Here is the input.
Amino acid sequence: MIYLDHRSIDLNQEEIISRLPREASFDGIKNYVNKAMKVINLASVYKPAFIEERDKNSINLGGVWFTSRVLTLNLESVERIFPYVITCGHEFDETAASMDILDRYYLDVVANTMLRLGQDKLRQIIQEKYLINKTSRMNPGSLQDWPLEQQKQLFSLLGDEDLFRQLRVSLTDSYMMLPQKTVAGLIYPTESTFESCQLCDRENCPQRRAPYDEEKVKKYFYAANS
Here is the structure.
């Protein structure tokens, strides 16, 4: 398993601000970004893994089974996958807990943006190292088809307790990760762009990264069952 600290996943202030919703004045946003950058230390672990078996709705990745129709279809022509965990660290949780509700809200928005940018940077690092032109990612819990409970399998696949101690990330009995601003998932080579948001019809979602795509819903679910 490969560990990357915040120096490898470097984010600059302008890049963060450009991705933030304009919910406060520019000076206000800049102030929250400054605060966040002092207490967020992005770090991640990832490793290459290979698909060993597959069937209609599940895959065996490195000896661990994952069940998801969407995931199985996305990995139909893929052999090597990159499971990962990325976190903003415990210091952010401790700082946010001591703030009032409004400050905590804006700091939370900045942290979510930094976490998404960190995942994009991690994809770039993997693409450059393994000579991959394009990647997408999927995360347990982002779709009903791939439930949060499969975080357990993902942690089992990564499976290096020493590095998890270095990262200081843990999984609770309800399959939530600590620190709170932590994301786990799979990065995989692809020729087409995929976002879980394309299969979710929830309106006015602040985390939406792509519009709902009814044709993709038909491809993954209706056509699969016909």
Remarks:
- The chain has one domain: 2-194.
- The longest strand covers residues 80-87.
